[in-house]
Structures are given as C-alpha cells and as structure tokens.
Please model this.
Amino acid sequence: MTCPQSCPQAQQRLLVLDGALGTELERRGASLKTRLWSAALLCGTEDQRELVRQVHLDYLRAGSDIITTASYQISHAVFHQEMGLSSVEAAACSRRAVDLAASAREQFCSEQAQPGKGDGDEVQGLASSQARLLPCATKPRQPLIAFSCGPFGASLGDGSEYSGSYADHMNESELVQHHRQVIEPILDDPRVDMLCFETIPSLKEALAITHLLEELRPAKPAWMSFSCKDGKSICHGELFAEEVVPALWPCAHLAAVGINCVRPPFVPQLLQEAHAKIQQLQQQDVEARQGQECVQQGQGHNNSLSGNSSFGSRRRGAEALALVCYPNSGEGWDDEKRAWVESPEAAGPQHFAAQARAWVAAGGGVLEYWAAAAEQHQRIFGACVMHLQAWRAVALGITGSRVDCAG
Model:
C-alpha cells in the first residue's frame, strides 16, 4: 500500500496521529451527554462547530500529521430520534465533519507559510519540540484527514460496542445500511484521505463493512480496528488472529486491520498472533501464485485458466494487511457516567510510551494513547515520537504514534 499522494514525505518520517476529540471537547466545556456524543456538535451552534475545528487545529499545531473527523458517533436514526433531522440533514453532518477538519488543515497550512502566525505559545512550543525530534519536521507538512466511522453499537449509547451483542439480532443489510449512510456522503470528497472503521466488536459487522466497501469501491484506503475482550478474542468472542484476520484478508479495499480501545496487557498476544497469521496467509498466496503460473505455462497461458482461479480473491504479497494498534490506557468505561474511570492497571504516559516500543516491534503500525486529553499527556508527545522513530511499522503506508483518543 503506497502512501497517499497528499503526503509524499510520509515514507521518510514518522507521522503522528491526533488525539482525543470527544474527551478534549468536554475538557473545553462542551456538553456531550447524548447518544451522538461529539457528533451532536456538527449540527449545533456556530460556536460549537468552531470548538471542534479549533481542537483539530490545535492538534495540528501540536505536531499531528493526521486528524480524524468528528463522525465516529454519526447515526441517521439517532439524529432523527434526538434532533428531528431528516436523512438529508443527517448526511450533511458527515460532510460538515469533513468541512471542519479541512478548514483546520487549510488554516494550519497557511500558518506554516507564515511562521509565527499560529495562536498559543504552548502548542507552538510543542510543534517546535516535534521539529527537533523528527526528520523533515521543519519542512511544510500537508496533514491527512481520516474519516472516522464507529460501529452500529456506538449509536445505542449503552456501551454495546464493547460487547457486540446487538449483532446477534440484526441482519447484514441493517448493518450495511448504517455504515452506508455515514460514509456515502463523503466518498467522493477529495479532502478525505482515508476511511477508518473503529472499535468494531463482531466479525458479523466487520464482514458487512467489507461487503459495503466491495460494493462502493472507494478510491480511498481504509483500515478496520476491533475492540477486544482479552488477548485472543474480539469483544463478541471471535478469535482475532484465527478467525477475523483470515476473513478480512480477501478484501482489497482494506489496507490495514488491527485493535483499538483494548487494554494494554492484551496487546502483545493479539499483535503477535495476528502478525504470524498474516505471514502465513502471505506465504499461501505466494505458493498459490507460483502454482497458478506453472499451470498457465503448462497450458500455454490458457486465458480461461487465468480468469478462473481462486487466487483472484486473494491478496498478493506486496499488498498484505498492515497491523494497526491503538489501545487504551487501561482505564474502565462507566456506562452510566459515560466516562472513562480510573483503573489500577491504567498506564501513565511514560509507561505507555515504553510499552509502545514493544507493540511496534510486535507489528503494530499506528499507536494511540486512549485517555483523557490532559496537558501532561500532551507533553509526552515528543517522548513517544522520539522512542518510536527508530521503527518502521507500516499501516496504510505510513507510520505513526497516536497520543490520547476518544471520539
């Protein structure tokens, strides 16, 4: 998978993803006590939308190379139930999420062309520290925009994305329709560089998404990451390495698969087993291709054979799935409070950065710190970058470290 053209320097330097959106918005005074969470601000007041845009901009100023849209919680059904919006108005919210991210990117790029123009000494200081740590960081950056799409369970507002139980009484067409409504309005938007389907709890929903991607055939790369309940299984119970990875392997529209919002102790086993499975699938593809070539040579390159091979549905070696890893800090989720709560196993920033080195070595390509977006965690930004830049862990053709996340 090659790097998006909008960021040609991506293969030569470490890229940094943004951080918490919903949690950071709350820290700045936004009230998100609805089933729409941060997506509610997309159809809010001008001041509320500006707050979303400002968070995007501040992350760019702090050194982020990729920002994710405020679309994780978008649901046409919930927009109608809670705000009375029509499907047309709800679709406009997907586009508005891109508008806000794109506006922040445009302003940031303008500030790069005029050094010293950005607001706030603190974020400018963070950006300066990044410049000292990263190769090419002093050169103008063209940040990427990833459109975020959460699972159907996120729209239920009851923590279902951490069980996947809703999939047991839904058919595939219902799951497909939910995701179609969210992503279809932005598929042709050139400002969106990639799609990310996050916190998927069940294989049933994952397959529904792949079928949608195969139908829509987007020109943008996508990754899919899963919530997991232990070191082997995603939240609904399917084995990540033995069942999920092989099931997603044939989908040519997926550039990466991985885990997110997972407790740190589960990460090494999940990554190691998935990495081994991907290597096995790659080897099988190589052997299948070699066997097909031998058959074609023996048959005089018979076109009917080359067009009737099961290899057509497999991945070729150079297009193997990358692994994505962005776990949480070990905190627990409180359904009633709709907030992350302290846990004895929660990792502090320094400890998390140390663990991240092992995760990268195990195959994880995108790393994130899912925790409250507090200043002390942002200050570890540079340390994480410094620790990780020695590795080239590929996801979507890029490498990166994501510090703090909640959508």
